[in-house]
Amino acid sequence: MFRLGFAALAASALFLISGPALSAPPTITTPPSAAAMKQLPRVAILATGGTIASRGSNALSLTDYGVGSGHKPVGIEVLVNAVPEIKQFAEISGEQVFNVGSSKLSIDNWLTLARRVNALLADEHTDGIVITHGTDTLEETAYFLNLVVKSEKPVVLVGSMRPA
Q: Of 78, 84, 128, 151, which has fewest CB within 10 angstroms of its CB?
């Protein structure tokens, strides 16, 4: 039910893991062993809200949806669990930093996100970060993070033009 809305999330994580030369996702028929899991990249997914975290009154509500205002937002657990195959390619952790429509983001939201990104990237157990974000201010957040993130590890922002 969530596959269409989360294709961008899975694609971003695969890009982060494999790089831009990825022509097709590898086929894995069996779950990785415990030893293989230790070798997988460790990717933190930080959720901030936006269309990707929205839902409408029914599965076909493509215009009447939102974060808040009577709409129950989709949390990070739902986003990560909607693409279980992603765990074949990376050790995934998820964190709901905040859940705000991106047109309503504040400087405080940006500072909170930047602090969390820098803290995670400073941890040797994090190889990269995917941030789910609304499309209204995705570029502004990316630019801000480019200025304040102090790491060579990759950070990918991903949005969605349709609700979950």
A: 84
